[in-house]
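User: Second chain of the day. Same drill as before.
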Amino acid sequence: LANHMKTIHAFLIFTLLTTISWAGEIPKFDSLEKFLSWADAKLAADDYEALSAAQIANKDTKDTRIIYIKKLDDDLPNGSLSKIFKDRVFPADKNQMKLGGHNKELGHCHIDLVRVGGYWQLAKIWQCR
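Assistant: Same format as last time:
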């Protein structure tokens, strides 16, 4: 019984550690430029799953999030968020930031970012129409 319990214990530890290492961490950004480069790389690779999983405040279904991300990718005028928002930075005096939306640079697509501690994270990507 003792050996059986050790085997179960080892299996549980292995399962927990591999789950944690595969799950990955929600990305954190200390500059808007780093976020934009990261998002551009995910869009270029059609890695909509990563962009969906990184959204910390989106209550939409995964399928809806993917639809919004694909729409953003399809509608990017020059294919690069970094080029569109090259002169923008995270606001020093606020805890939220919005890119695009309401027929601005990204059409009706919004990219909402929030400050969490000393970093910024992707809150959600969504469409207003």
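The two ends are 62 Å apart (CA to CA).

User: Great, on to the next one.
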